[in-house]
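User: My advisor asked me to double-check a structure prediction for SPFH domain-containing protein before group meeting. I don't want to rely on an old file, so could you generate it fresh from this sequence?
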Amino acid sequence: MYQEKIISPPSGYLTFAISIVLLAASIFCFVSEIFLWGGILLAVDIFLIFPGFLIINPNQSMVLTLFGKYMGTVKADGFFWVNPLTAKRRVSLKANNLNGQQLKVNDKLGNPIEIAAVVVWKVNETAKAVFSVENYMQYVNIQSEAAVRHLANIFPYDHAEGEETSITLKDGAEKVSELLENELNERLSRAGIEVLEARISHLAYAPEIASAMLQRQQATAVIAARKLIVEGAVGMVEMALEKLSQKGIVELDEERKAAMVSNLLVVLCGDRHVQPVVNTGTLYN
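Assistant: Sure, here is a fresh prediction for SPFH domain-containing protein from the sequence you gave:
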């Protein structure tokens, strides 16, 4: 495994001045018809001086190799001169966005889902990025897809029946993003890549089960609402009976209490407007 070695080559301005002097000297030799020395000076300038010039822009680097041996990486921006025989490979240090494609996978419960992620990454160690993998950008794409598939397989899309404590892809966004970022950093460390942020950008049930899951969610919401309504209605009936008993407004036997409870529950739990009925007799006729 190659370890990055930062080098600081000499400034290129002095060498550039020497190059201008050699160019001027070669022109003078040609004008003076001293063709041999003119050709030698021009060849030195073109083949030994000019190829060594190096311009590094901000947030860029240059990986240098000499006859197959890694010499080091230049990360400082500026104008430099290096051995003209070195091979140079420019590597960007800027942050990159990977907008992953939508993947169709099965979650932990076996439900087919569609999932995609956005990954922000940058090259942290240029030597590993250049020498440890064939193509580090393609490596990032493939490993990101593999990490997203693995994440979808170990978590359910939503809570299972009667289960509320486990992490899900739908509700545990922060935890899921943290786990995805950690896994990507572990996978991409071989290529010298650092993941700055990773988040799920798309999450949905696959079209073939989307309608069924929507009905399930709607049924769950209706049951939860009905449960809340019944709990409130029972509390109101209990409070009403207690107030009537305390104030002595009316004396109710067990049969009348049962009838009153039944009527109140129908009124409070019903989903339609109540139609009042006037009873001109008694509760027993």
